[in-house]
């Protein structure tokens, strides 16, 4: 079934689906492993600006981050079960791949003349 789109455009869209899927899954893994976002490295309990868990922090000054871990299904997140480093690695790699596809898309769009599909002729 030919729709008038070049093969490289279809390949770019297929790769983007893969990259966005892994980007979302790795983000869920990161938030599941460490579900509170802070503004600085040295933080006190209650100083977070976003919370993605219903668990409460202990009232004393220092606490273990491992107690905040939310176990998401490997179908939704990466199958690592709480590996923050693995989640960050996949997050960075998929963003790099997505941006690379984005740049290649715009270069091929300009070189092959497909940009005319976006610009009205009259």
Treating each run of at least 4 consecutive H or I residues as one helix, how many helices?
A: 2
The N- and C-terminal alpha carbons lie at a distance of: 29 Å
What structural category arises from helix and sheet content?
mainly alpha
Portion of residues in beta strands equals under 5%
Estimated radius of gyration: 21 Å
Major pleated sheet: 2 strands, antiparallel
Uncertain residue segments: none
Report the average pLDDT across residues: 78
Order of neighbouring strands in the sheet with most strands:
1-2
How do the SSEs run, as a string of H and E? HEEH
Q: Given the C-alpha coordinates, what overall shape results?
A: elongated
Structure summary, number of beta strands: 2
Assembly state of the chains shown: single chain
Give the helix level as a range of percent: 40-55%
Secondary-structure topology with pairs:
Blueprint: H1 7-33, E1 36-37, E2 50-51, H2 84-112
Antiparallel strand pairs: 1-2
Helix pairs in contact: 1-2
């Amino acid at each position: 079934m030919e729709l008038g789109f070049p093969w490289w455009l279809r390949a770019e869209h297929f790769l983007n689906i893969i990259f966005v899927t892994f980007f979302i899954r790795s983000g869920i893994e990161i938030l599941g492993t460490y579900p509170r976002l802070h503004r600085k490295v040295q933080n006190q309990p209650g100083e977070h600006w976003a919370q993605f868990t219903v668990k409460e922090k202990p009232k004393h000054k220092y606490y273990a981050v491992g107690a905040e871990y939310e176990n998401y299904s490997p179908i939704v997140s990466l199958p690592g079960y709480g590996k923050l480093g693995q989640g960050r690695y996949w997050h960075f790699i998929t963003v790099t791949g997505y941006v690379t596809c984005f740049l290649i898309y715009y270069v091929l769009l300009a070189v092959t003349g497909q940009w005319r599909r976006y610009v009205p002729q009259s």
